[in-house]
Here is the input.
Amino acid sequence: MKKYIVAILSVCFAASVFTACSKNDDNLDIPLMYEGDKYAKNAIDTFIINEYIIPYNISVKFRWDPFEVPTNKFLVPVKEDVVIPVMTIVKQIWINPYEQMLGKGFIQKYAPKQYVLVGSANYNNDGTIVLGEAEGGRKITLYQLNKFDRKNVPFVKQMLHTIHHEFAHILHQTILYQREYKQITPGGYTATWYNTSNAQALALGFITPYARSNSDEDFVEMISTMLVEGKAGFDAIVNAQTPAARDLLRRKEALVSAYMLDKWKVDIYELQTITQAAIAQATN
Amino acid sequence: MKNILIPGLLLAIISITACRKIDSDPVFGQRPDERLMEILEKADQQLKSSEFGYQAYLFPSEGGNGGFAFYVKFDPNNRVQMYSDINASTSSQVGSSSYRLKAIQTPSLFFDTYNYMHVLSDPDNPLGIGGRAVGNYGDFEFSIDSTKGDTIHLTGNKQKSPFVLVKASQADANFYKNNGLYRLDSTLRDYMTNATFLYVEDAKSGNYAFSLNADTRVVSLSRVEGGEVVSLNTEYALAPYGLYLNKAITIGGVSYRYIYWDAATKSLYFKNGDTRINIKNGTTAIIPFWRYIGVDFNSLVINDSPMDGWSTDFTTKWNAARVAMLNGPYTLRMGYLFLTFNKDVKLMTINLFIYQGANQFLATYPYSYTVTEDGVFKFKKAGDPNGNGGLIAANMAPLLNHIENDRFTTDYFIHPVEGVMGMMKSVENPAFSFSTYTTNF
Here is the structure.
């Protein structure tokens, strides 16, 4: 009797499991909730799809979206005619050198997944302006692009410095750099790094004022400066310093190149050469 | 037995009830995003439906300046064409960019790549409009508020600037395409330079003086009410017919949103039904000059060299002061002299700019004043001059003696080149009189 009831219940249960919750898979091709907007794609979209989305799964947002940028700032959208030149040069000077040395898979795996383009500068209350910023190794926002001019080398370098900087963060967040690096200039790190001039930072053994912020920033500022300025440019900066400062900067350089070689199998000096050639070609 | 039966029954109940499918048909017949997309689609169709585009008016919010006119034509594939009255080039060359409709908290129209409209929000001030880091407090993302007839009202999402789209006719479109905005702006500037005392008649409660500032894009109607100058001010934006006003102006109980330009008679007028209410050019002022002192004219400014309207006596004494300063121990060059009025505390300060080489200094002399109902001013010394003022007090004495001892009348003065200026004249010594510029600072 007991077994009988148990058996009946079991059968009921089993039946209910199989039948009651079966969903009929009618049309699943329905719009996502709150998709929000719809627009006709144009030649710029095609460029981005072909050059960024398909090969690298990187999206580039050039149409204004108020929720991608700081809401407490006065900002304007980018001009349509600078989008392709900007993203072409980013590809030439940032993606291509890495890809040439490490293959496509490397960029696909580690690169930030979204670019947001903004036309004006991002002004701070203290009168300084932000030219680029990154969030969590995932998104890079570039500002003041309406002033972009391919032949303006300092502008291009500044922009690429930001991108190389953020990408270097991703590298060290994936494989941490040597412990010793933090011990080279331990007393120089400060939250008020912005009160430091370029010359003061260099005299203390930091490649830029922002490098004083903390050892992570120090490390990535070294990488981005080495790549954007090239070996000759970097050496010129370092050699102009006092022997003590020069020694500190050279020790950092040695650790950076050892890190790149050991962990990522990249000869940073070769990467420097390739990046410099790319900058020269792109801004020509 | 019981042990099994109870959980067994529960299980059976759950089996029967738990998987009852909830009726998933939405109350409004469609899923929320479908309804949303439908509204956006409808709005887009509405925008594109105007064959000749729209007259558009944007009034930057508080902190920003003036009113701006645009011509906006929405094309297929999220393209938009624009003209604007920002400058000669934005008025004569078409600007093309993208736009899209996006559902955020309300259905919104985004001008989502850079065009003329963004100049008003640009913190880099590319055309010299607005302040550094803040722009001119314009907007380029708008919520669609309402549609009335051929007019769509929108509000900026960020700065809350009002933005109005009015369906354009073919003639309107031609006006914009033929650089009409810039030409109308120039026409109005000429009109204001040539006008003397513009006024609007209000038979019941007194005529209004009319003025138009083409730089700040503000029109004002002023008259004296209860001993005070009362002004109705509003920003305007240029339109094919003349001016579109940000806020309606009420004259004699009738409210007006538009001011029309008559190219034939070269004059402005309001329209009440079919009746024209002309803005006329008078020979006498509606508001006595002195009423404006300390109100619109915070300072009367005496030129840094003799000009029309200076009496011989004044010119002689001014020159004496100038030469004395130049030959004095500090070799000072005499610059503009500001008579700055503070109406609330009845204080008038003389601020004289003096220069030693390239260095600018300020000599100040404070006076209190009284003014009669006929506009006669009487000044009284109200403290010592500042250090610089003290050093040249002896040089300035021929001029300051009159200020301290005489009474003065004020009036308008029509300068052959500069247009309407001010004039001060001593009551006791009518030979002592001089013309002044007027400023609001």
